[in-house]
Design goal:
This protein has about 260 residues and is mainly α. The protein contains 13 helices and 3 strands. It has 2 domains: about 110 residues, no CATH class; about 80 residues, no CATH class.
């Protein structure tokens, strides 16, 4: 029997202290007839990569921050191949406490916090849903949506989140803001896309559908007629009609 070299005898087992070797050993013991040594090694490498992605270095986290898995901007929440991205979110920071100490209402700081988290996730290649934020702060989705909409109304812009960027869920705030900026305020669609953090393609689609619905609505304000004529869903038609009515009411008051 050939004796192992001294360094191998002395240090060979040390590698078992690390995660990849521990996973390889686990696969070897629990699935002895399923994985060969090469497959065990490759599988262990992939698992370690996944763990590293899910657990960012704690040195990068500050007090008041957390790690959360959010839907990637390149994926959709209802996709069978949905991709999740671990993002670092700031639930509370020193500026929040300073504002509280100076008398700023907590409701205002809550709006700022939700806006901050939406933007942080977007900058890291992901989108939060209101359910995500609701879970993080133990609040109902609808309550978070109400707070977010107040911020968007006050700032006259929309935040990047699943509902606004991917047109997913029941959110119509982004459509309202984009259409108001372009149709009723006369802004360039490219500027509206930039201000609302939407793609030009998305803005063009909203505008195209809005003009089609408005033309039909002016001819015959009947939802079924507009749905048949445009080919849009009744839900979308009702969204655009709500936008038309709201802006007409605003224009009348102004006049």
């Amino acid at each position: 029997m050939i004796e192992s070299p001294q360094p191998q005898k002395h240090f060979g087992s040390a590698r078992k202290r690390f995660l990849q070797s521990a996973i390889e050993s686990f696969l070897e013991v629990e699935f002895p007839r399923t994985f060969g040594p090469v497959i065990r090694q490759k599988a262990a490498e992939k698992i370690v990569d996944l763990v590293n992605q899910q657990l960012p270095d704690k040195d990068h986290l500050r007090p008041g921050q957390c790690v959360w898995n959010a839907v990637a901007t390149t994926s959709r929440p209802n996709s069978p191949n949905r991709q999740l991205v671990p993002v670092i979110l700031t639930l509370v920071d020193s500026s929040d406490t300073e504002q509280l100490a100076s008398g700023t209402p907590m409701s205002v700081i809550a709006q700022q916090s939700i806006a901050r988290m939406c933007r942080e996730a977007f900058e890291q290649g992901a989108l939060l849903s209101m359910r995500d934020i609701g879970l993080l702060v133990w609040r109902n989705n609808s309550g978070i949506s109400t707070i977010r909409k107040k911020w968007e109304t006050n700032q006259q812009t929309s935040l990047p989140h699943v509902g606004s960027i991917q047109d997913f869920g029941t959110c119509i705030t982004h459509k309202t803001i984009i259409i108001r900026k372009v149709v009723y305020e006369g802004k360039d669609p490219r500027r509206a896309a930039d201000e609302t953090k939407h793609s030009q393609r998305a803005v063009d689609r909203y505008l195209k559908d809005f003009y089609r619905v408005r033309t039909c609505y002016e001819h015959m304000p009947d939802v079924d007629f507009i749905t048949r004529t445009t080919g849009l869903s009744k839900y979308l038609v009702n969204q655009y009609i709500s936008i038309i009515k709201e802006n007409e009411k605003t224009a009348t008051k102004t006049a």
